[in-house]
Write a structure and sequence with these properties.
mainly alpha
Length: about 170
């Protein structure tokens, strides 16, 4: 791992911790819908894997990213239990608190990480959604729950554009 960029090391460590908790990509909701659509519906990515990798691998302050990730890893089991429970209940306020408020209140120095991992990407995804809407048609959009909540979340950004997103 010495030769890997910090973002890749952290992704690997986080994935291993998630596997220990029984959380796998194969059981993710995004994978579920992707498999349902494959061969039946066109699949349009809001964000490419290259973009996701760029966010992690070319992080402006890798030391800060390492500190933040190790801080979260110490509490990952409790955090994931709360995140999954909040998601299952459809509790957007609890998700916002867990993804945004709790961490930034405890560690305001992690603000740049949050902006890069969430806010910047949310704006980019909203631009892609707007471009799809301009083309016309109906689209089913799947994103991680953390991208939906907060003032810079996709729901708020779409609302500011005059859209009326709603939670089902």
């Amino acid at each position: 791992m010495d030769r890997l960029k910090p973002g890749l090391v952290l992704t690997t460590l986080t994935t291993l911790e998630m596997l220990k908790l029984g959380l796998t990509a194969e059981h993710g909701i995004d994978r579920h819908f992707l498999e349902q659509a494959r061969g039946r519906k066109p699949i349009i990515e809001l964000e490419t894997i290259d973009r996701q990798l760029d966010v992690l691998l070319n992080f402006p302050d890798p030391d800060l990213l390492v500190r933040q990730s190790l801080s979260q890893m110490a509490q990952i089991e409790e955090l994931m239990d709360e995140l999954v429970s909040s998601w299952k209940r459809g509790d957007a306020e609890a998700l916002r608190r867990l993804v945004i408020d709790d961490e930034l209140d405890a560690h305001p120095e992690f603000g740049p990480i949050h902006r890069r991992l969430f806010d910047d990407r949310n704006r980019e995804m909203v631009e892609r959604i707007a471009a799809l809407q301009a083309r016309g048609g109906r689209y089913f959009v799947v994103v991680g729950a953390g991208h939906l909540v907060g003032e810079q979340g996709i729901i708020s950004l779409l609302s500011r554009r005059g859209q009326q997103p709603r939670q089902l």
